[in-house]
Amino acid sequence: MPKFSSENPLVYTIKNLCKVCYTCVRECPVKAIKIDNGQAEVIQERCIACGNCIQVCSQGAKVFFNSTDNVFDIIKSEEKTIACIAPSFPAEFNEIDNYKQLVGMMREIGFDYVTEVSFGADLVAREYKHIFDNNKSTPIITSDCPAIVYYIEHYHPEIANSLAPILSPAMAMAKVVRKKYGANTKVIFIGPCVAKKAESDYFDEVITFTELKQMFVSQNINHANVKESQFDGPHSGKGAIFPVNHGLLKSINKTEGFEAGQVITAEGKKKFKEAVKEFKQGALKTQHLELLSCDGCIQGPGMTDKGNLYAKRKNIFMYVKSKLETLDEETWQKDMQFFSDIDLSRNFEIIDRRLIKPDEKQIAALLIKMGKTSPNDLLNCGTCGYDTCNEHAIAVLQGLAEQEMCLPFTIEELHKSIKDLSVSNKILADTRQALKQSEKLASMGQVSAGIAHELNNPLGIITLYSSALKDDLDVKSEVYQDIKIIDEQAERCKNIVGGLLNFARKNKVQLSDSNITKLIEHSFDSILKPKNITINFINNIENNIVKLDYDQMMQVITNLEKNAIEAMPNGGRLLVELSETIKNVEIKISDNGTGISQENLEKIFTPFFTTKIVGKGTGLGLSLVYGIIKMHKAKINVKSNDKPEKGETGTTFLITIPKDL
Ligand code: ADP
Ligand code: MG
């Protein structure tokens, strides 16, 4: 098809309409449709323009090149224009009462002459007859259908010499009208066929019936508003009947009396492929093959109505019947004689386009990759557009298909992805939670830092003045005792402010090599141990020396220990465990106290959050812990159970300090 190429395609996909259902892949007789990145694309070099994909695409995503603008341009040019309409037209223009109206409409568009291709069919039929008479023993394949000719030229070149070397009726008619009306006249073929658009050498342009109807609509031409007119000659005889007689050979067969079964007609994608296969195997030695890619040309992709086969046949019969009744036999014979010098011979362009089959090992390996490890896995379900899993694998290796076209494989992959997704979803949810918490703490930190900064100065002044006052007073005096209380309370406030500053990270840590075992042991000295609480210390580490800020870490540990004790008003056990991994030192502080409710777990590090009565708790302990831990680039985690029905209640804080700070 030289006129069309990948830059200028004949049949192509409108990408945003394609829903990738693989129906076109399934229906393409030569596997000229490639799935690339999930899009169905017609490979121009492989396409035989049969139009099957256009017919089967329910989304209208497969279309053919529209030539109506070109035809309008030709009509506007200086040259005379001739329309040659295919014999299947009565099947298309069903709504027009009388063919003379159709001819009138075509003249209205601007064609100078309007002729019927069927006279070409008469000439071609006579030529076939010659071949058969002179060569009874060699079987031939008719060459009327361009899609079939391309199919044999490119996919079965071994039998290309069986193609009858005769022009198609349309090509013959192009020569006839040029002889009659002048070599420079522009010839436009109009028919049901898309493949004809590629027979560029014979016609100046080719349009389908669908396009002709578009031209009528755009020019507002309809059968009610035109002058009836007769076709221009030469007029045909029996040639007009071939679309309903299952092709030209069958027509000759009927009229010229071939032996029974000598002509085999195969119409439609499945049948013509099967017939070619059997022909190649030699099973059809004495038969002639009439091959048509559509049903008798009347179901072609260029027809607007894709159904109603029998009604269409009836329309053609009725038309031919009335035509033959009025046939001027003498003029027809004269015309047949006049045009008998036209050379109807043709050549074929044989280019083998078959792809190399990958070797069996590659196919087997790919099938395994697609999860087909045993014969039972080869479902051959056809969902991918290929009849078997094997054919699909071959197409993948040839670059025509993708593995994902296999439904069971894709479902399996989908399940895997869903699993992976749910895992990452969980991680994401946890991270989000942590992020929310740290955002909250960060904003609290800013507020706290502000407050702490503002309070620090007045508190300093209170302490300064109260100390000055105390110096002037008798230690035993009542006023001295009162001022002492003011002093103590101011000191307490300063501690709280210090805690806030720690939380807000305004303070700094001073890291030094510290003995962590000693730190834990000392921490027990700074807390009040009620009698009903036992304290255990399990030390699992070998190297006691860890880089940390001893004083600040002491605050962390004692705060956690105090909280644990306060959570066990009726007694219990406090356990501190030291252990290490390659990268970290871990301190675990656990109690079997009341536990923390799920709801409160989110709030415990927030400054001023406390569940303790006024005067008992400030709610600053854990926020201070959090600030110091962050400054150490360490982590703190908490696990807690406050529901006895779920097991022993209690809380465990785990601090993880990185060794290489
Ligand atoms: P405070 O001890 O002043 O209340 P904290 O910041 O130290 O403030 O603790 C906040 C809250 O966290 C406590 O009021 C308590 O509800 C809860 N909490 C902390 N540690 C424990 C624990 N070991 N067991 C139960 N609850 C705890
Ligand atoms: Mg506390």
Structure notes:
The protein is an alpha/beta fold and 661 residues long. Helices cover 43% and strands 14% of the residues. The protein contains 21 helices and 17 strands. It has helices spanning 23-27, 52-56, 68-76, 89-92, 99-109, 118-134, 146-155, 169-181, 209-218, 248-256, 269-281, 309-325, 329-338, 360-369, 389-397, 407-471, 478-503, 516-525, 550-566, 598-601, 621-631; strands at residues 11-13, 33-36, 39-42, 62-64, 81-85, 113-116, 186-191, 205-208, 263-267, 288-292, 512-515, 533-539, 545-548, 572-580, 584-591, 635-641, 650-658. It has a five-stranded mixed beta sheet with strand order 12-14-15-17-16, with helices on one face. It has a four-stranded parallel beta sheet with strand order 6-5-7-8, sandwiched between helices. Helix 6 packs across helix 10, helix 14 crosses helix 15 and helix 18 (516-525) packs across helix 19 (550-566). It is elongated. The model has no long low-confidence stretch (mean pLDDT 88). It binds adenosine-5'-diphosphate and magnesium ion (MG).
